[in-house]
Structure formats: structure tokens, C-alpha cells
């Protein structure tokens, strides 16, 4: 059976994913959006009504402030609001009104609660202001001459504004006067007319036992209600205002859910229309996406197959700034590395042979070290043994003192050799910790020359120290003293009797450069790099009178390397010069 290609797999997975995602969104919208939105609106209304009730209960508002707070609530939350008695009698309803003063000084409040929404725009566009003179035709509230429901409002020099539909056939009252106060609805206020509150009051009051019990416990009542005449879906909320543990007043709010249903119905129809087109678009985009993703993968796969046949000459042409580009660069890098790996293996084989040869040289050096150490210890031990036997055999009293001096001298040499071997072993182990401090090298040099004055006088040597802008050095003073001591002893040992040893201490870019030069035979050039090795001597005869332990310069080397110092030895016209930089 033919294998499915990566393009097909990507297409199928992508299309399935997007179709599933699209279906989930549609189902969620169609099945749960209305309930979710209604639940959210109920929670928001309950929260806002509770906040209004707390402000209303805590603050003593006058009539003007009360009207404005109610108007602000209605406008901001697009709902209707009224304050009721516990029995459901209206105490305050919509605050939107115009107050006029008639010629006789009588004040009349003109309610705007029944103005039809279609006429509200004319009312707002009239730009009514305090001081304007208007004429109003309408009906007085039953039993009072202070509250008026307008049918037609006329402003001087303007067309009719505002009307109450369906009452033109009634006998209307006519009043006129100057505006003294007005509170108009917001232009964007599209709520139901306040008349819905009266319908809700007739339906809800008297309260049921369940509602009354809940309100008496200080809890709000919020439920969906369908207005019986028009079938309009509404949300009704009642919040109790408690005083001394009893319900003192009720705050009732009503808002429409009709827009939610209408919007949800429109969405259902909309999704039905775009469903087929959306699925076709998803399939097309999935195909394009799969081809875009699979193309570089197929190219990289062909390159990998050629590399599997050890053809490392092929290079991937993909240079995009993404994961494919990164993979392409990795394959190109892998090709280059594999091409050089075979050569590196051959080189590794050669290196292995060199390492084996180096190991053999190390073993040889170890053998030489044991041999050299044995040789250095054998001669003084033989001397000590011979002179000790002479003392045992009872040599003459005149020779006895000389024999003891020889034994002490040889044991001293053996002690120095063992001490140097131990010091070199510690330096090579890497366990030495430097204790650095600041000091002057020239002062340290004077102390060392004073200690070696006996050796200098023995060969009639003179030490000449030359300093130039000497800076303070920061190093381990004890170790540097050992370095200078060993180099100076080596210079004294091989210097021509009666000559000078020149010591120069100079500044070299903020560092100290010290050199010690003696007059004598030079070191063969082929041996210059070997003099730092243990037991190595340029003088191959290993004369016991002129040679030391053979470890002094090896110790110098390790101390200077611990200080990360540059050091060396060169032949000069006069002799040999050792130098180091700190």
C-alpha cells in the first residue's frame, strides 16, 4: 500500500483541526452564547443595583440630586429604575422631565416617560434650555394639576417636538410657560419607555411569598420576565433597602433581553450562510499551508538522503529566518563536519601515536629521574659511608676533624637535594597557594645579595644592580625570593672569578622586568630549552664542585608559571642572562 505523503498528512491534520475549531466556535455561539450573555447581564445588573442601593441608603439626597442619580443610573446602564414602597407603590419613577412656570406663577412638571422613542430625537435636537418659552398639549395626571403628560410640545420659532402616539382623539389640556428646570435623556438612551415599569408592577405585586421572604432577608430578586402584551423578554431586579432590620423601600430595575434574542437569531442565520463558504476556505487554506510547510521538508529530505550516501558536496539552498532555515544551516554544518570527520579520525590516529610516543618519553623521563636521583644520592652516601668507616677504624686524631667536616658537608648536600625534590613535588602537584603582597624587588635583591656575600667573596664576584622607574610588584614575596636566590646562585656558580654579575630592574608597561646576567661560558643553543628540566645541566660532566642539585631552575620555572610570568634565558656577549617579568 502506498504511503501517505507529508503534504497529505499536514493537509488532513490542519483541515481537521480548523474544522473542529470552527465547529466548536459555532456550537458555542449557537448553544451557549445567549445563556452566557443573559447570565452575565443578570450578574452585572445585580451588582450595579446593590451599589446604587448602598449609596442611596447611606446618603441623604435631596429631590434634585435624587433625580439626577436615577437619571445617571438609567443612562449609564441602559435600564429603567423606580423606587417603591414595600407594597409596590411608586415613590419615584423616571426623572426625565421639564419643569415650567406658568404666567400665574404655578409650576408644572412635564413627564417625558411616555415620549415615543421615534420622537425623542426631535426633542433632543430642539436644544431646550432654561428660560425657553414652550407650549404643551397633553393630559394632567389623574387627581393633580402638577404633573403633565405631553402629546405635543411646541417651542417658539420651531416645529412641534415630542408626541404621545395613539391619544390624539382625546380632549387635551393646553399649558404654556417658561422652562425653569429640565433633565433630558441621553441621545444614546434606547431603553424601553417607562410605561413598562407600570406593567411590571401590576404583574409582580403583590409579591409572592418566596420573593417577599428573600427580600426580607436582605437578598435581591432578579428574574427573567416576559411582558404578556408584547411577548417582550425583560430582566426584572428588585433590591431591598433595609432600615433597622426591616425592608424600608424597594429599588426596582427593568431592562430588555430582547436584543440578545434578536442578535442570537441573526447569528444563527449568519453562521448557516457562512458555514459552507467557511469550510471551503478552511480546506483551501489548509492545502496551501501544508504545501508551504512540506516543500522545505521534502527538499531537506533529499539532501539528507544524499548525505546518507556519503555525498557531502550538496548544500541546502534554504535561507529563511525560521526553523527550516535553522535546520538547513544545521544540515549544511553537518555536511561540512562529516566531510572533515574522516580527516580528523586520521589525524586522531596520528595524535594517538604521538601520545603513545609522548607517554614513552614520560616513562623514560621518570626512569631518568630515578636514575638521576639515585646518582645524586649515591655519591654523597658513598662518601659518608667511607669516612664513617674510617672513623670506626680509628683514624688519626688529626684526620678525625676533617672526616667529620666531610660527612657534615655531604649530609648537608643530601638534605638540600631532598628539600628541593620535596619543593618541586609540591609545586608540580598544584596545591601551592600563593600569598601575594606588595613589595620592592630591589629591596628583596639587596637582602639576597647580603645572604650570598660569602659565596660572592669566595669567587671575588661583584653584584651591580641597575634600577629604572621600578614599580611596586604584587606577588608572593617568599616564592619570588626563592626564584631570585636560585637564579643568582646559578649565576655565581658559573661566573668567571673576579667578574661582575649585572642585575637590572626596569619598568615594562607597568610591570617589573628583572634580569640577572653573569660573565662566563654560554649555553649551547640546542640546550637552552632544556635547562628548566629537573636534573638537567648544560655541563654534562656533572662536576660535583660546580653543579648544584639540578632542581633549582625547575623550581624557578614552576614558581614563575604560578605567577603567570613570562621568563627565559638567552646567551649574551659576556655570558648568560636569565630574566622574568612580574
TrEMBL record:
Cross-referenced PROSITE patterns: HAMP, HIS_KIN
Membrane-protein topology: Multi-pass membrane protein
Coiled coil regions, renumbered to chain: 331-368
Protein location: Cell membrane
Residue ranges of domain Histidine kinase in the record: 372-582
Keywords: ATP-binding, Cell membrane, Coiled coil, Kinase, Membrane, Nucleotide-binding, Phosphoprotein, Transferase, Transmembrane, Transmembrane helix, Two-component regulatory system
UniProt keyword annotation of Transport present: no
Reaction catalysis annotation: ATP + protein L-histidine = ADP + protein N-phospho-L-histidine
Main location: membrane
Transmembrane segments: 6-33, 269-289
Domain HAMP: 291-343
Record protein name field: histidine kinase
Organism: Paenibacillus residui
Amino acid at each position: 500500500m502506498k504511503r501517505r505523503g507529508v503534504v497529505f498528512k499536514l493537509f488532513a491534520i490542519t483541515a481537521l483541526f480548523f474544522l473542529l475549531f470552527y465547529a466548536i466556535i459555532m456550537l458555542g455561539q449557537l448553544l451557549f452564547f445567549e445563556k452566557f450573555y443573559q447570565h452575565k447581564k443578570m450578574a452585572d445588573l445585580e451588582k450595579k443595583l446593590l451599589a446604587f442601593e448602598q449609596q442611596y441608603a447611606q446618603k441623604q439626597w435631596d429631590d434634585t440630586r435624587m433625580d439626577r442619580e436615577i437619571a445617571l443610573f438609567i443612562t449609564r446602564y441602559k435600564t429603567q429604575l423606580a423606587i417603591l414602597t414595600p407594597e409596590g407603590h411608586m415613590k419615584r419613577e423616571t426623572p426625565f422631565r421639564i419643569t415650567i412656570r406658568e404666567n400665574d406663577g404655578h409650576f408644572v412638571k412635564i413627564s417625558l416617560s411616555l415620549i415615543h422613542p421615534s420622537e425623542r430625537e426631535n426633542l433632543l435636537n430642539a436644544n431646550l434650555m432654561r428660560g425657553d418659552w414652550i407650549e404643551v398639549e397633553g393630559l394632567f395626571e389623574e387627581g393633580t394639576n402638577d404633573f403633565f403628560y405631553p402629546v405635543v410640545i411646541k417651542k417658539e420659532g420651531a416645529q412641534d417636538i415630542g408626541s404621545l402616539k395613539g391619544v390624539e382623539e382625546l380632549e387635551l389640556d393646553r399649558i404654556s410657560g417658561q422652562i425653569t428646570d429640565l433633565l433630558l435623556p441621553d441621545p444614546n438612551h434606547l431603553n424601553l419607555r417607562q410605561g413598562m415599569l407600570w406593567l411590571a408592577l401590576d404583574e409582580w405585586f403583590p409579591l409572592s411569598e418566596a420573593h417577599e421572604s428573600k427580600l426580607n432577608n436582605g437578598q435581591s430578586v432578579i428574574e427573567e420576565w416576559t411582558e404578556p402584551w408584547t411577548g417582550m423578554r425583560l430582566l426584572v431586579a428588585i433590591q431591598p433597602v433595609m432600615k433597622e432590620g426591616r425592608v424600608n423601600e424597594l429599588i426596582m430595575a427593568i431592562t430588555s433581553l430582547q436584543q440578545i434574542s434578536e442578535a442570537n437569531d441573526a447569528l444563527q442565520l449568519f453562521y448557516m450562510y457562512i458555514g459552507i463558504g467557511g469550510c471551503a476556505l478552511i480546506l483551501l487554506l489548509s492545502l496551501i499551508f501544508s504545501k508551504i510547510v512540506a516543500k522545505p521538508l521534502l527538499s531537506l529530505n533529499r539532501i539528507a538522503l544524499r548525505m546518507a550516501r556519503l555525498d557531502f558536496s550538496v548544500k541546502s539552498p534554504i535561507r529563511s529566518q525560521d526553523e527550516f532555515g535553522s535546520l538547513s544551516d544545521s544540515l549544511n554544518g553537518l555536511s561540512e563536519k562529516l566531510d572533515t570527520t574522516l580527516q580528523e579520525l586520521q589525524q586522531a590516529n596520528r595524535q594517538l601515536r604521538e601520545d603513545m610516543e609522548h607517554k614513552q618519553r614520560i616513562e623514560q623521563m621518570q626512569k631518568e629521574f630515578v636514575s638521576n636521583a639515585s646518582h645524586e644520592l649515591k655519591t654523597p652516601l658513598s662518601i659518608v659511608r667511607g669516612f664513617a668507616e674510617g672513623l670506626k677504624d680509628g683514624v688519626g686524631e688529626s684526620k678525625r676533624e676533617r672526616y667529620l667536616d666531610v660527612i657534615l658537608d655531604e649530609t648537608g648536600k643530601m638534605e638540600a637535594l631532598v628539600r628541593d625534590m620535596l619543593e618541586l613535588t609540591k609545586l608540580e602537584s598544584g596545591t601551592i597557594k600563593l600569598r601575594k603582597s606588595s613589595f620592592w624587588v630591589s629591596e628583596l635583591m639587596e637582602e639576597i645579595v647580603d645572604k650570598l656575600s660569602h659565596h660572592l667573596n669566595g669567587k671575588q664576584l661583584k653584584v651591580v644592580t641597575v634600577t629604572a622607574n621600578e614599580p611596586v610588584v604584587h606577588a608572593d614575596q617568599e616564592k619570588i625570593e626563592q626564584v631570585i636566590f636560585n637564579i643568582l646562585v646559578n649565576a655565581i656558580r658559573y661566573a668567571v672569578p673576579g667578574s661582575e654579575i649585572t642585575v637590572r630592574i626596569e619598568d615594562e608597561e607597568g610591570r617589573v622586568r628583572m634580569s640577572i646576567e653573569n660573565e662566563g661560558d654560554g649555553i649551547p643553543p640546542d640546550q637552552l630549552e632544556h635547562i628548566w628540566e629537573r636534573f638537567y645541566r648544560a655541563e654534562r660532566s656533572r662536576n660535583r664542585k660546580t653543579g648544584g642539585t639540578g632542581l633549582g631552575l625547575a623550581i624557578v620555572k614552576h614558581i614563575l608559571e604560578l605567577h603567570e610570568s613570562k621568563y627565559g634565558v638567552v646567551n649574551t656577549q659576556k655570558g648568560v642572562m636569565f630574566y622574568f617579568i612580574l
